[in-house]
Amino acid sequence: MAPSWLERAGQVFLSNYYPAQVTLVRGEGCRVYDDAGREYVDLLGGIVVNSLGHCHPAVVEAIREQCATLMHISNLYQHPVQVRLAERLTEHFPGGRVFFCNSGAEANEAALKLVRKYAHERFGAERHVVVSALNSFHGRTMGALTATGQTQYHEGFEPLLPGFRYVPFGDLEAMEEAVTTDTCAVLLEPIQGEGGVVVPPDGYLREVARICRDRKALLVLDEVQTGLGRTGTVFAHQFDGVVPDVMTLSKSLGAGLPLGAMLARGEAAETFQPGNHATTFGGTPVACAASLALLETILADGFLDKVRDLGGFFRKGLDKIAGRRRVASSVRGRGMLLALELSVEAAPVVEAALSRGYLINAVQKQVLRFAPPFILTEEEAADFLGVLDEILAELD
Ligand SMILES: Cc1ncc(COP(=O)(O)O)c(C=O)c1O
C-alpha cells in the first residue's frame, strides 16, 4: 500500500511541530476537508489567520486577478496595490506610515530595530532597553524570541539578545519601576494571545501609554493576533482608547497569504532612512491584493458589529459551560478571540473535538483558544458549544 501523507511527512520534515494526525486538502467557508473527505469546522482559523474563513470569494478573485497582472517586483519600485493597502490601514491609524514584511516575527523585528534607532539618535546608545511582558509571545526570530517573556521558548537558544527586561502583564507598579532612563520602548500585546488569551485590567494600556510618554519611551503594541477586527474593533488598542507609537500586524492581514506590517506614527515614523531596513518579499502585490479584499470586507458598514454580536453569543455559550462543568473554570477574551480555562489538561479536549469534526487548539496546558472565522453562523457556534459541553461532561 502506498504510504500515507502522514508517513511521508514523517520522513521529510524536521520535528519542530506537533502535527495532528490529519491531512487537510481543501477548505470552503468555515469548513476544511481531509484526504479521506471528512469535514471539520475550523474554529482555529489557521491560528487566528483565516478571519474570512477558507477561500472567501472576494479574496480568491483578488488573488486570481493580481496573479494575472503582476506577481512580484521588489520594493525598489512602487505598485498601486501596496500603496492602496497602506492608505487603507493608516485610515485607522492616523498619521501612520507602513513597512510591509511577511510575518509577525518580522514585523516585531522591524519594530525592535526602529525603537533602538529612535532612542540612539535622540538619547544615545545607553537608552536601548525594551520592556516586554512575562507570558507574552512575539515570535521565534532572535529579537522577537528575546522579547517573548516565556522561558520555555528561550531554553537552548541562549545567549539571547542583550537589552530586554520583563514585567508581569497587567502590573502597573512593575511597569513604573521597569521603565527608566535606559528604556527605549515598551512592547506589549493588547491581549496576550499565545499566553492564554489574557486580558489586562481596564485602564492598563492607558496608564502604560502615560508612563511611556512621561519617560520618553515609545509604546509598541503587537497586534499580530488581536488586530483587524478579531477583538471587535479594527485594532484592539482602540477599545482601550490608546494609540501606540508603533504597531505590528500579521496573521489575518494577508487573508491567508504571508504578510506582515509595522506601522509607526509621529516622530517614530521618521526613524528609518533609506537602507536601514528592507525585505525582498514584504508587501508583494498578490499578498497586498488579498489583504485589500479582506479589509474591504471587514471594514464594510456593520461588519464588525456582527463580529461583536457573534463574539458575545459564543462567549455566553462558554460562560454557560463554565457555570455548568466543574472542569471548566473561566472564560476570557474579547470579540472573537476567546478562551476557556480548564482545571484539566486541554490536549485531550482538543483531540476529542477533532474526532467530532472541530478544529480548536490549546494555548498553555489548560487553556482552550477559539478564534473562529467571522463568517461563522450562530447556529454553527451553538452546535459546537453543544459538542464541547458533551466532551467536558465526560471529564466532569
Ligand atoms: C502576538 C503575536 N506576535 C507575533 C507572533 C509571531 O508571528 P509569526 O508566527 O507570523 O512569526 C505571533 C504568533 O503567534 C503572535 O501571536
Shape: globular
The secondary structure category is alpha/beta
State the low-pLDDT regions, or none.
Answer: none
How many helical elements?
14
Strand order of the largest sheet: 4-10-9-8-7-5-6
SSE pattern: HEEEHHHEHEHHEHEHEHEEHHEEHEEEH
User: What ligands does this structure carry?
Assistant: pyridoxal-5'-phosphate
| Overall average pLDDT | 97
Radius of gyration: 21 Å
How many separate domains? 2
Q: Residue share in helices?
A: 25-40%
The portion of residues forming beta strands comes to 15-25%
| CATH superfamily caption of the largest domain | Type I PLP-dependent aspartate aminotransferase-like (Major domain)
- For the secondary structure, the number of strands is 15
CATH architecture type of the largest domain? 3-Layer(aba) Sandwich
- Please identify the top-level CATH class of the largest domain: Alpha Beta
